[in-house]
Write a structure and sequence with these properties.
With about 190 residues, the chain is α+β, with helices and mostly antiparallel strands. It has a single domain (about 15-165), classed as NADH Oxidase. It is about 40% helix and about 15% strand. The chain is built from six helices and five strands. The chain has helices spanning about 5-10, 25-35, 55-70, 75-85, 105-125, 145-150; strands spanning about 15, 45-50, 90-95, 130-135, 155-165. Strands 1, 2, 3, 4 and 5 form a five-stranded antiparallel sheet that branches. Helix 2 (about 25-35) runs antiparallel to helix 5 (about 105-125) and helix 3 packs antiparallel against helix 4. The longest helix is centred in the middle third of the chain and has 21 residues, at about 105-125. It is globular and about 60 Å long. The two termini are about 35 Å apart. It binds flavin mononucleotide (FMN). Flavin mononucleotide (FMN) binds near residues 12, 133, 134, 135 and 136.
Length: about 190
């Protein structure tokens, strides 16, 4: 697939099955992430890859977040939370490792850079025939989850990328007119 077709036809896939991406496929995905635009070469990126029992550990962290929420989530909510990461054979947490008070690169630029990395990862997954879906949900913003993932207070969890083998049909893509979004000063 040529580059423009990939850019124009990226399509999230929520139904994901085993097998998980191979090590070689993940290396290609991380290399794509590591080419994200990056002001002042801060490389403000951290990735945590969850598979197997790692997915269960992430689920336990979500359940703990539910317990720590006020009012504390009931047992059903905790059980549902613990199952969330099991929707794919692999989840990658994409974290913006923010350098605070940088003289040239404000926080927002560093978080956007991590977002670009996540986006590149979805393209690299699709280019290899894999499926991917970017999810956040409340757990991406939860202090219990942040602490459990070893994030500093400055860091931002930009998303959980659910990755795997496509398990369903790709949805039809929306047709959008660039004229609805673009203005030209000439
Ligand atoms: C930062 C971010 C967080 C998202 N979080 C969720 C989420 O928690 N749950 C969800 O169903 N979709 C979420 N989405 C949207 C999906 O990843 C996806 O973009 C959407 O289903 C549209 O599909 P498409 O990417 O193929 O256009 C999120 C997207 C972004 C950029």
């Amino acid at each position: 697939m040529d580059a423009l077709t990939l850019l124009h036809e990226r399509n999230s896939m929520g139904k994901l099955m085993a097998p998980a991406p191979s090590d070689a496929q993940m290396e290609a995905i991380y290399q794509a992430a590591l080419r994200a635009p990056d002001h002042a070469e801060l490389t403000p990126w951290r990735f945590i890859e969850f598979t197997g029992s790692g997915l269960e550990r992430l689920g336990e962290l979500f359940a703990e977040a539910e317990r720590n929420t006020l009012p504390a989530g009931d047992e059903a909510a905790q059980a549902a939370a613990s199952k969330k990461p099991l929707r794919a054979p692999m989840v990658v947490a994409v974290i913006a490792k923010v350098t605070p008070d940088h003289p040239k690169v404000p926080r927002v630029e560093q978080v956007v850079s991590a977002g670009c990395a996540a986006h590149a990862m979805l393209f690299a997954a699709q280019a290899q025939g894999l499926g991917g879906m970017w999810r956040t949900g409340g757990y991406a913003f939860d202090p219990t989850v942040h602490a459990g993932l070893g994030m500093s207070e400055q860091d931002e969890l930009v998303g959980f990328l659910y990755l795997g083998t496509p398990g369903g049909r790709l949805k039809p893509l929306p047709s959008r007119e660039s004229a609805d979004f673009v203005e030209r000063w000439q």
